[in-house]
Amino acid sequence: MIDARLRLQRRDFLLDVTLALPSRGITALFGPSGCGKTSVLRALAGLQHAAGRVALDDEVWQDDATGCFVPTHRRPLGYVIQDAALFPHLDVRGNLNYGRKRAAGERDRIALEAVIELLGIGHLQTRRPATLSGGERQRVAIARALATGARLLLMDEPLAALDAARKAEILPYLERLPRELSLPIVYVTHAMDEVARLADHLVLMRDGHVEAAGPLSELMARTDLPLAQLDDAGVVITAEVAEHDELHRMTRIAYQGSSLWVGQSPAQPGQPVRARILARDVSVTRQPPIETSILNVLPVVLEHVQREPGTALLSLRVGHNAQPGHWTLLARITSRSLDALNLQPGDTLHAQIKGAALMRSG
Fold this sequence. Notes:
Number of strands: 21
Order of helices and strands: EEEHEEEEHHHEHEHEEHEEEEEEEEHEE
Strand content: 35-45%
Radius of gyration: 23 Å
CATH architecture of the largest domain: 3-Layer(aba) Sandwich
Shape: globular
CATH superfamily of the largest domain: P-loop containing nucleotide triphosphate hydrolases
Number of helices: 8
CATH class of the largest domain: Alpha Beta
Helix content: 10-25%
């Protein structure tokens, strides 16, 4: 685990957080600007001394109770920021070699070659940073951070300076990193689309405190958190490819006893895929729809209604009582529809899912 207890007073801002983060996968720190996300990252790195304790598994980097404080250059971590910050006078190989100076031994140098292949930058070795695209520069920056033999990768808004095309270019590489390297990543962002696509674990921050923390799928399904108020509120599921419809270029995915048709996936049957279902793309009916263009219709039970100005957010348990495999779906409908249907918790309904966005394999 990544264990951290941090407290930092800065003028009128107080950072006071306790974190117990998994040592595998991507943990996203998410919240509004100024909530303390970057301060947490800098404290984990030792770039900013917040009072408390920081440990990675059984390796203690800071413990104020015993006077322990390991400086940044002795912590086995990589740090990637919004600006790739490559040395302009060195080519890609020179930048990577700079990072490799911190590597402990031969094994770390061999690992670097694997990272170069994983990030697809082998053909860039003789190029200078000025000749690279934004996405290429960030991939080189990630490789340089990992060249140190890092056991933890910290990333602070790494895609914020990239346009949509460059983001699309680099996201698949970020998805592969924790799976291929078994490396924990703490990822700061204010972009929910990045959280939904990349994160396994989520920490919601507000005003220097942790509002909630846990598995991504659980937190996104909760209606009592600020995530539910976002326009792109919804749930994320990790399903399994069941079959392909080559004629119509669609894929059926299976999850907890339910199945959904989504856009065609390159993943093979049996392989895991991640899909996102936005609340605004879900509607409900009291009777099973007949001759509808909506391909995904699931039996649900209404569990909770949260009224909003002009709308209502419904928490739906997928599957009627006689069916196994319950999971939560969110639907945002107008308050007029809520009243017209006289919807009450406990009602048995059918959810129509207009679209489920397939985000990635694995």
